[in-house]
Design goal:
By secondary structure, the protein is α+β, with helices and mostly antiparallel strands. The chain is built from 14 helices and twelve strands. Helix 2 packs across helix 4 and helix 4 runs antiparallel to helix 5. The longest helix has about 45 residues. This is SLH domain-containing protein.
């Protein structure tokens, strides 16, 4: 019956396939419409996409079954060692022993390689970490993952030469620990405990930067030793920017509060020449850049420090290129329209001076913002955009001091260049700190000068 059914299906498919092939060969489909063969770029892109999907699938498969496969090879290897150590076996079957040793060496190398790739993927993709919302649990998980990968290679390198068996024993213990922590029931129980535990909360605060240390240890000490194409700095930056991109995605999805711990970690690991950290950073929130040319003009805007960007709309890539209209409307190459260029970036906290500022009462926040921005010369739309964001973003029921940082300071923090030189530029960021009740000296206000092609920008950062 199965053979008959299969024959019927096949007899139906073959004529259709033949018809399609004939139509394609003749430059048309079954309805006679012209068919465009795929270009070499399309084919290469499809191959690359398929390869990426296959790689991801192999990692996912290894994450689920890797321990079982490794255990199976280890048991088979132990059995093989017992067989080949039988008196006279190696003498009688020398070639078989060499072949068997080669097979198990290759299997060990392959399983260790997959373990390491899996570990590297977990460490550089925090969104895949089941404990991402809890730094303490995330640190422990990443620590186990990194050390297990390192011990796998140590076991392979010196395990058989270690008379105490310490390396092999440590490797087995770490493997079991990672396996248990990877269990869904264990994850659920630990996360439930963490959500109700003051101890975990305290440890979270204490260990926010420890995860960075172990990631750095894995990528900068262990991994490059077998991949000469990556320098230590390259691997460190890869970890940093992967986490930075993930945090930007979480902000884009409105999950910023949930991932404040990751923001703090990124602030303390921002790269600079000759160092691995730039401490005491804050996030410049929602700087909006408004462009007002005198006539419709195509403009490219670029940052001098693009590495500090955490978010951008439209997507920044290597710069923003838009067509700007005199009313401030910006249009990109895909015909999407924007009222301003939006970005967020990591900046030094000390860039904000806290000597002079404006007190913002908690119960009259919008009114205070409107009055201050009007004094600086912001127009109605710019002011409305500012109030819409900052009136809601700051803590309810809390009074703040708003410290201005003017154009020169903003230029130093995030320098900008324009393909068409503006006639006037006015950039201002405000640093927000909770008001303690002390006397605050108000700053002198220099209004915006709108002359010719004008660029206006406002932004802010919470300093507490």
């Amino acid at each position: 019956m199965r053979k008959k059914t299969f024959s019927l299906i096949l007899s139906g498919i073959l004529p259709i396939t033949a018809l399609s092939f004939t139509a394609f060969a003749n430059g048309g489909d079954t309805a006679g419409r012209p068919v465009t063969p795929p270009s070499a770029t399309d084919v290469i892109g499809q191959i690359g996409s398929s390869a990426t999907e296959a790689y991801t699938a192999s990692l996912n498969f290894w994450n689920d079954y890797g321990n079982n496969i490794s255990d199976g090879f280890n048991l088979a290897g132990e059995s093989w060692n017992s067989v080949k150590n039988t008196p006279g076996f190696e003498t009688s079957y020398g070639d078989a022993v060499k072949t068997g040793d080669g097979i198990f060496s290759a299997a060990g190398f392959a399983t260790n390689l997959m373990d390491s790739l899996s570990a590297a993927n977990q460490l550089t993709h925090p969104q895949d970490n089941p404990y991402a919302s809890h730094p303490a649990l995330s640190t422990a998980y990443d620590t186990l993952t990194a050390w297990q990968a390192m011990m796998n290679w140590a076991d392979m390198a010196v395990g058989d030469k270690d008379p105490t068996g310490t390396v092999k024993g440590m490797n087995l213990l770490l493997g079991e620990a990672v396996k248990n922590w990877s269990d869904v029931a264990t994850q659920t129980a630990l996360l439930d405990y963490a959500n109700h535990s003051t101890i975990i909360g305290t440890v979270d605060i204490t260990l926010q930067n420890v995860n960075d240390y172990y990631t750095d240890l894995f990528q900068n000490v262990f991994y490059p030793s077998r991949d000469a194409e990556w320098s230590l700095e390259d691997w460190w930056k890869k970890s940093y920017y992967d986490k930075l991109n993930f945090y930007a995605q979480m902000v884009r999805e409105g999950r910023e509060k949930e991932f404040e711990w990751l923001r703090d970690e990124l602030m303390n690991m921002a790269p600079k020449a000759g160092s691995t950290i730039l401490p005491n950073h804050v996030t410049a929130k929602k700087p909006n850049i408004y462009l007002y040319p005198e006539t419709e003009t195509k403009i490219t805007v670029t940052f001098g420090k693009p590495g500090y960007l955490t978010l951008s709309i439209p997507e920044y890539n290597d710069g923003w290129t838009v067509t700007a209209s005199p009313d401030g409307t910006l249009t990109d190459k895909d015909k999407n329209s924007y009222g301003y260029l939006f970005y967020e970036a990591l900046v030094k906290r000390k860039a904000f001076s806290t000597e002079e500022g404006f007190v913002i009462p908690s119960n009259k926040r919008a009114e205070a913002f409107r009055e201050i921005l009007a004094s600086y010369g912001f127009n109605e739309q710019e002011t409305a955009d500012f109030i819409e964001y900052w009136a809601d973003y700051l803590k309810d029921g809390t009074a703040y001091v708003m410290y201005p940082m003017l154009t020169e300071g903003v230029d130093n923090a995030m320098p900008l260049t324009f393909s068409v030189k503006p006639d006037s530029i006015y950039r201002i960021w405000f640093g927000f700190a909770e008001y303690s009740g002390d006397e605050i000296m108000p700053p002198e206000i220099t209004p915006i000068v709108r002359k010719g092609f004008t660029v206006v920008e406002w932004g802010g950062a919470v300093l507490d």
